[in-house]
């Protein structure tokens, strides 16, 4: 599969599957939680509170894994992302990603506790019914 076609399939899976299992490292062990996934192409983001354990964990070790896609239905698309996360309070990005569902946790896009985790993939594994596992790597 060509890289451009693989990128399109990964983006399609990210559009379809908005919740993923996000793993950080705590005390040398993986810690996993479900999180909403946002993306602009293969720029992948998660919204969180700056006071959470995951932010503390990422400050110590930015290594992450994110798994999404399997929903028990056929055909399935599965995306597994390995990389690092950067904690950002970029106002333009926070504004673009803001939606009213986040109001449950934050007062608005200017809430000082609202931060974005920007995922920098080292590789993305993509699986579907029609092809063998494909691996995307940045340039």
How does the SSE layout of this entry go?
Blueprint: H1 3-16, E1 19-26, E2 29-36, E3 38-40, E4 43-49, H2 53-60, E5 63-68, E6 77-88, H3 91-97, E7 114-128, E8 131-136
Antiparallel strand pairs: 1-2, 1-5, 3-4, 4-7, 5-6, 6-7, 7-8
Pfam family, one: PNPOx_N
Protein name: Pyridoxamine 5'-phosphate oxidase family protein
Domain Pyridoxamine 5'-phosphate oxidase N-terminal: 7-126
Task: Kindly describe this structure.
Strands 1, 2, 3, 4, 5, 6, 7 and 8 form an eight-stranded antiparallel sheet that branches. The chain has helices at 3-16, 53-60, 91-97, and strands spanning 19-26, 29-36, 38-40, 43-49, 63-68, 77-88, 114-128, 131-136. It is built from three helices and eight strands. With 139 residues, it is an alpha+beta fold. The mean pLDDT is 93. The protein is globular, with a radius of gyration of 15 Å.
Q: Report strand %.
A: over 45%
Shape: globular
Helical/strand content category:
alpha+beta
The SSE string, one letter per element, is HEEEEHEEHEE
- What is the tally of beta strands? 8
How would a textbook summarize the main sheet?
A: 8 strands, antiparallel
Helical amount: 10-25%
Distance between the termini: 16 Å
Protein name: Pyridoxamine 5'-phosphate oxidase family protein
InterPro entries: Pyridox_Oxase_N (IPR011576), Split_barrel_FMN-bd (IPR012349), Stress-Dev_Protein (IPR052917)
Organism: Paenibacillus glycinis
Domain Pyridoxamine 5'-phosphate oxidase N-terminal: 7-126
């Amino acid at each position: 599969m060509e890289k451009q076609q693989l990128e399109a399939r990964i983006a399609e899976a990210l559009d379809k599957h908005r919740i993923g299992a996000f793993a950080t490292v705590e005390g040398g062990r993986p810690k996993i939680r479900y999180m909403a996934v946002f993306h602009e192409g293969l720029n992948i983001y998660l919204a969180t509170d700056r006071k959470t354990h995951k932010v503390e964990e990422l400050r110590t070790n930015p290594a992450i894994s994110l798994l999404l896609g399997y929903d028990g239905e056929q055909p399935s698309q599965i995306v597994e992302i390995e990389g690092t996360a950067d904690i950002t309070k970029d106002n333009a990005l926070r504004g673009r990603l803001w939606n009213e569902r986040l109001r449950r946790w934050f007062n608005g896009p200017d809430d000082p506790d609202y931060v974005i985790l920007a995922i920098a993939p080292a590789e993305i594994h993509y699986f579907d019914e029609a092809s063998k596992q494909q691996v995307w790597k940045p340039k």
